[in-house]
Amino acid sequence: MYIAAIDQGTTSTRFIIFDLTGKIIASEQKEHQQIYPQPGWVEHNPLEIWQNTQEVISSTLQKSGIRPNEIAAVGITNQRETAILWEKATGKPVHPAIVWQDTRTDKICSQLALNGGQDRFRSKTGLPLATYFSGPKVKWVLDNFPEIQERAEQGEILFGNVDTWLIWNLTGGPDHGLHITDVTNASRTLCMNLETLDWDPEILQMMGIPRVMLPQIRSSSEVYGRINLGQLSGVPIAGILGDQQAALFGQTCFDVGEAKNTYGTGCFMLLNTGTKIVQSDNGLLTTVGYKIGDAPAIYSLEGSIAITGALVQWLRDNLNIIQNSNEVEPLAKTVDDSGGIYFVPAFSGLYAPYWRSDARGVIVGLTRYINKGHLARAVLEATAYQTREVLDAMNKDSGVDLKALKVDGGMVFNNTLMQFQADILGVPVIRPTVAETTALGAAYAAGLAVGVWSQIDDLRANWGMDAIWRPQMNVDRREKIYAGWKKAVTRTFDWVEKF
After folding, report:
1. Do residues 449 and 222 touch, judged by C-beta distance below 8 A?
2. What is the distance between the alpha carbons of residues 43 and 95, in angstroms, rounded to a whole number?
């Protein structure tokens, strides 16, 4: 018996089949196009994502030889905050997906903040008013296309993050497809109340979002329905987790105080705070970590960084300094350090702990000495510095100093980065044997719902350590170069003029 997961990320879609020990048996992956219509705008084609999802499912099953009736359940994990609106009758998107990195809603967020400030909704949602979240993206579409607003009010237009879009299509689409989401994804819209775990009527009214277009909010682990399409027809969908919460779950961070950091397009550190809603005083987000069936919701503090792995892609795609992302580490190793330069990748503004939508990227400290090796090194170091800022904030909010950091995601196989990460944090960095913990977390949630595992403690036995990096840098050096980073960050501020 196997458990499978659809992992729909910012740049690609994967289908992964796991055995009951958490080992990957087979997987396929397909990238989708990143669309940049104008500066600050980032879009995806929802139909391309749906097509790719079907293709990776088919190719994984074909390659593995595993029959659908051998798969006990499917879990879904997804890029969060990316907003999709589509016609209920046809399944046709009425606008391209507006991606979480997109900054077009800056004016909307500023206007909403005129009364009550950036933290106007924080007590209810755990989130600041920021372009990151999907609620303002929905408002932007409705404000700019009155005909869509009118149809939405009549119940003809549906909204969802990517999990909702995929589940609706997988379970029938226009033919009675399920319009649902889970608490983790709903908590990223800026429209869900953390205490009631339901849409907040007051916030919906302020944003002008009709409740009828919103999905039903469910737990992260239960049998929602069955797939009604293609080779997986009849297989239950039984787990939904936003990608970062899925990684928390896959890393088995089930105890209060346990944390993980995922290195993907962006970087996302989550700390389990148990059933307690902890409001941040240091620029972090309060979010739902997971909710298993009827059990109480488990909450988390999160530090979200917009650009980490995406910066390596920028070196590759925009500057052509490397041809493949794997080449960044050998290039960085051609030099001993960054040569005194810092690269602050505020391409979409700065997220945690600053929440500055007016910031833009900078490279500082340039001299004639600098070559492309130093640039590659600075790209990697930027990820580690940003993670240090989030960890500092997390230590302040929680009152507990983290002793070690569990890591996962594509960048954790970059040994140079992981060693520098340990050096700049001053704590060990630990990579698990299964680094694809995002998909694994969704598979775990699905397996719990259908009884493959009876309780979450059963999952701990699957976790194993693959590698550990211990700090090697002396404290004086660490604090000196980190102070340089903090200085560099200030150079990004106030670049975009407010309306």
Report:
1. yes
2. 10
pTM to 2 decimals?
0.87
Q: What local confidence, expressed as pLDDT, does residue 443 receive?
A: 97
C-beta of residue 126 within 8 angstroms of C-beta of residue 277: yes
Q: Which residues pair with 100 in a beta bridge?
A: none
* Interhelix angle 106-113/134-144, nearest 10 degrees: 100
Nearest to 305 by CA among 100, 7, 442: 100
Angstrom CA distances, 452 to 17, 21, 64, 72, stand at 14, 11, 21, 8
- What is the three-class DSSP state of 385? helix
Length of the chain: 499
What pLDDT score does 498 carry?
A: 63
> How confident is the model at residue 403, as a pLDDT?
81
Quickly list H helices, 327-399. 328-332, 372-398
Token reading at 126: 């755990």
Enter the DSSP assignment of 69.
Answer: G
- Which residue, 34, 143, 165, 22, is CA-closest to 87? 165
Q: Is 56 exposed, middle or buried (0-12, 13-18, 19+ CB in 10 A)?
A: buried
Q: In what order do the strands lie in the sheet with 12-18?
A: 24-31, 12-18, 2-8, 71-78, 236-242, 221-226
Could you tell me if 325 and 312 are in contact, meaning their C-beta atoms sit under 8 angstroms apart?
yes
Strands 259-263 and 405-408: parallel
Amino acid at 174: P
Give the number of other Cβ atoms within 10 Å of residue 168's Cβ: 24
Decide: 435 and 409 in contact? Cβ < 8 Å.
yes
How do residues 192-207 score in pLDDT, each as one tens digit? 999 999 999 999 999 9
CB atoms within 10 A of CB 179: 18
A 10 A CB-CB count for 397 gives: 21
SS3 call for 389: helix
The CA distance from 313 to 198, in Å, is: 37
Q: What is the dihedral of CA 328, 402, 396, 263, to 10 degrees?
A: 30
8 A C-beta contact, residue 95 and residue 44: no
**Ranges under pLDDT 70 in the chain:** 498-499
Helix, strand or coil, per DSSP, at residue 2: strand
Q: H-helix or E-strand containing 316?
A: helix 309-317
Residue 89: CB atoms within 10 Å? 9
DSSP string for residues in 128-177 = -S-TTSHHHHHHHHHHH-HHHHHHHHTT-EEEE-HHHHHHHHHTTTTTT-
Fill in the amino acid letter for 456.
I
Q: To 5 degrees, how large is the angle CA 31–CA 33–CA 37?
A: 160
Partners of residue 76 on adjacent β-strands: 6, 240
pLDDT of residue 360: 94
For the record, the structure tokens of 477 come out as 């050096």
Q: Which of 18, 8, 14, 6 is nearest to 452 (CA)?
A: 18
